[in-house]
Amino acid sequence: MKKILYIMLLLVLTSPLAWSGPKKSYVIGFYNLENLFDTYHDEGKNDYEYLPDGANEWTDVKYVKKLHNMATVIKAMKEENKVWHAILGVSEIENRHVLEDLVSQPEIEEANYQIVHYDGPDRRGVDVALLYRPELFTPLESRSIPFDFNSTEIEFSLNEEEQKNFRTRDILMVRGMLGGEMFAFFVAHLPSRIGGKGMDLRSRGGEIMYQASMELMDKYPEIKIVAMGDMNDNPTDPSIAKYMKGREFINEVGPRDFFSPFTQMLHDGYGSLAYRGEWNIYDILVVNSNLVSAEPGTLRIVPIVKKKYYGRVFKKPFMVQQDGQYKDQPLRTFSNGTFINGYSDHFPTYIVVSNK
């Protein structure tokens, strides 16, 4: 009997999972903060509507309310998940100053979020950024990737002169260590749909992220990659489905593909924003094959909604317009030019990676 117990103990101790370390789970998300501007003019930026004497009469009182509301949503996600986001990508922020004000809000200051941000060339002055918890994630490098027209596949609608004058948000890349494993995070806010245009530009944005991801995978074959952002496209549109090679189902993901967890959710009626009366998921996270086919005991994407969906659109009643023209849609900051003390016109989205 003792011999049998000894053999069983030996098998457990020599099992590959026996030395995989503590079980860990991390929340990784994205949130479009809908025009988080301070009340000061930034030289060279078209931020005039967000000044005290601008069209929105953007005062310190409104700014403080906006900060509180954004922090309230982030805290609500923590309360649901029992942990703060390890990584939170954000968009539509004016500068580093507004992020410093945000992370110091009393609702979320205990998370001790640190910031990766670069000033970009967008004419309105809105950028993307990454918030991270330094106890969990250690950045090793970061860069701001500019938009360009260097595609051999995409035919652009803008002529050469228009291309020279085109300005949009850079794509942020941050590489570092999460849970002892190498990760890279891309944060994007792809060109607008205003006027029904820009599919070629958004496709190029997806192509830029994909090419940068493949360069990282060639250099670091085991790297795990999450690309996120307000893509101004659904996961079924070319920017994600074609140029990011975003596959709907895990069993479709090849070595140089991405898994797109929000594609199935879109098909099943979920939405992160309403555009022209239709629900869409523009707030997208996709993960590379290394997060799908991870070795046992290492971090991989896991289902988090109904044990079926690998993504979550975070929506609580206090974040939803209860009546009027935009009933049941995200409760935004302004409605028809009137400040209504809302949150954002987008719901945040997130995924969970775990070694459990």
List the helices and strands and how they pair.
Blueprint: H1 2-14, E1 25-36, H2 60-81, E2 87-93, H3 96-103, E3 114-117, E4 127-132, E5 137-145, H4 160-165, E6 171-178, E7 181-189, H5 199-219, E8 224-230, H6 238-241, E9 246-247, E10 258-259, H7 261-267, E11 273-275, E12 278-280, E13 283-288, E14 300-301, E15 312-313, E16 334-335, E17 338-339, E18 349-354
Parallel strand pairs: 1-2, 7-8, 9-10
Antiparallel strand pairs: 1-18, 2-4, 3-4, 5-6, 6-7, 8-13, 10-13, 11-12, 14-18, 15-18, 16-17
Helix pairs in contact: 2-3
Structure description:
- This protein is α+β, with helices and mostly antiparallel strands.
- It has helices spanning 2-14, 60-81, 96-103, 160-165, 199-219, 238-241, 261-267; strands at 25-36, 87-93, 114-117, 127-132, 137-145, 171-178, 181-189, 224-230, 246-247, 258-259, 273-275, 278-280, 283-288, 300-301, 312-313, 334-335, 338-339, 349-354.
- Strands 1, 2, 3, 4, 14, 15 and 18 form a seven-stranded mixed sheet that branches. A seven-stranded mixed sheet has the order 5-6-7-8-13-10-9.
- Helix 2 (60-81) packs across helix 3 (96-103).
- The model is unreliable at 4-20 (pLDDT under 50).
